[in-house]
Amino acid sequence: GRGRMMAGSPSSSGSFTSPVLSIKKGEEIVDLIDLFSKIQYRAKEVSPRVDAVEKRCLELFGRDYKYSVIHNTNGEVCGHYPRQIVYLEYECMDSQRDRFQSSVQISKLQDLVNRSKLARCRGRFVCPVILFNGKVWRGSDDTWTEQDEVLEEDSAARNSESQLFDKVRGHDIKLLRYLSVRYICDLMVENKKVKFGLNVTSSEKVDKAQRYADFTLLSVPYPGCEFFKDYKDRDYMADGLVFNWNQDYVDAPLTIPTCFTPNLNIDWTEYQSWDLVVQTQNYLKLLLHIINSDDESGLLVHCISGWDRTPLFVSLLRLSLWADGAVHASLQPAEILYLTIAYDWFLFGHMLPDRLSKGEEIFFFCFNFLKHIVSEKFSAIRKDRGSVTSLSSDFSLITEETGGGVAGGGASSLTTDVAELHPRCGFLSERQARLEAVRELFLAAYSSTVGLKSSAPSPSGAISGLLEQFARGVGLRGTNNIV
């Protein structure tokens, strides 16, 4: 998967921020976020507008990969998964397109999916999402009703039901093995959670029968979507925002195999004191390290329902690897942004209208966070540090290291964590230029659709003026006022 890693870079395909392209591609992102902010995707209720989004995703995947499709036509496998689930098989140049030979028995995979879905919440199942370095890397959500807690109390009367759960979990494990998953990363802060009156759990880590003993399990607890209301209420400032680990329901420990800790230079014992920026950075470094350390095995990332934390890290991984030229090598910034919003968030069921109504802005956090991973420390590829490129747009974004005030808002806390425009800053690393181009497009589109809502009058004015100016800078016009 690394042979073409620089194809489609700014230097080989021209400027990726030309004004005409920015406007056209930017409007496509605006339309997508506008749709996403109004409806939650359901596979059995697909409008022509949603159908067009699905087709666009397939087209974007097909630019760089040959793929098979797991069929979920009317949501019969899972109502909150895409109707056509893409199984990326291998990278494929245009000249190779007519010679595709599938490396997977798609009928067997479809059968395993149908059998294993009963093991996981709402029929969700382990799902391949990213192909990196010749292997499939999968993000998924992982949970089931923990009925065997009840069953074991009355094993004589309920023996058949207990055997059924053994069988169902057996199918789940068969699917994991078929997909070559070895590493399972659990983002839940709870060992168990009550949902819909049932105990549910991500339960490889509390599976009494040790059915998942052959897998390398990591418990890396990360705050759920509710915590991101605090992020919004602090005027979208993640710096200094620390999760309260002393809450009653928080009982999942941080557990990382020692084989992954020596090379990262991270003091994991301090994780409860990390703010949201440092915690997200360190978890991303860990995931990148895992997928870089084993060329044969896949990584499964999951939380409780797979609607918030899972797409956050899948999206950050996809964008980080793309910025290195390691995945989706031919896609431009607007195209990779479209793909990850549409596929990783929208088509996998993130409930953006609900989250926005509650102020739980984890979706915005994801793309605004890109400025915190521009460093080569987050690169999966060790490149020549002399590789630089220049943004040709009239504006580019400052990174978190740069200070300064915002006109109208003074030295507001918003200056480093929402967006600040400044004249072209010259040469950037290619990774930084690519990620900033994606973030730039996102902020402009978000500001002209959803908007940012501040808790205090003065910063609100700063946000509004700032993002309206920002949208104009990339050729977009706001469709509503930001309040």
From TrEMBL:
<dbReference type="InterPro" id="IPR039802">
    <property type="entry name" value="MTMR14"/>
</dbReference>
<dbReference type="GO" id="GO:0004438">
    <property type="term" value="F:phosphatidylinositol-3-phosphate phosphatase activity"/>
</dbReference>
<dbReference type="InterPro" id="IPR016130">
    <property type="entry name" value="Tyr_Pase_AS"/>
</dbReference>
<dbReference type="InterPro" id="IPR029021">
    <property type="entry name" value="Prot-tyrosine_phosphatase-like"/>
</dbReference>
<protein>
    <submittedName>
        <fullName>Myotubularin related protein 14</fullName>
    </submittedName>
</protein>
<dbReference type="GO" id="GO:0004721">
    <property type="term" value="F:phosphoprotein phosphatase activity"/>
</dbReference>
